[in-house]
Amino acid sequence: MDIKLKILTVLMMMGGIVSLMLISGCIEEPQQNNSVNTSSLDIFFPVQKNPTDVCMCALLEDELVIDKDGCLRAGGCLLIWPYGFSLKNESGVRYVIDDNNQPIASVGDKIKIGGGETPGAHEWGRCPGPYFIVCKYGIKVI
Q1: Domain spans in the chain, listed from the N-terminal domain onward
Q2: pTM surpassing 0.85?
Q3: For all residues of the chain together, what is the average pLDDT?
């Protein structure tokens, strides 16, 4: 193996390790008073524990659903919402509210969201992975 290929391989491995470390620091395990919004108590709604303008660049397009365990998902992924987002129940309709207190989607909407899948570094018993970290700039109802 030539030296350029070795260097490239090492850099790619280091980039992957750094990415996993950063991602795992972005999600907080749910407890009574932390980053899981409980405005709609029966629905599991994890949020990132810190604000960020950095986003992964995958695209997920599917219906926003609540599974049998009360996990809010799209495309089979448990969604990890941006810091400051919440879930609101109004007249039986559950809305995702952004960090400006504006509704951006409701359960049943077909959505297109930017972000990226992350390995199950944080296994939540009732809501197993895969997990998708949602980018606050890439959310659209279609």
Answers
A1: 3-141
A2: no
A3: 79
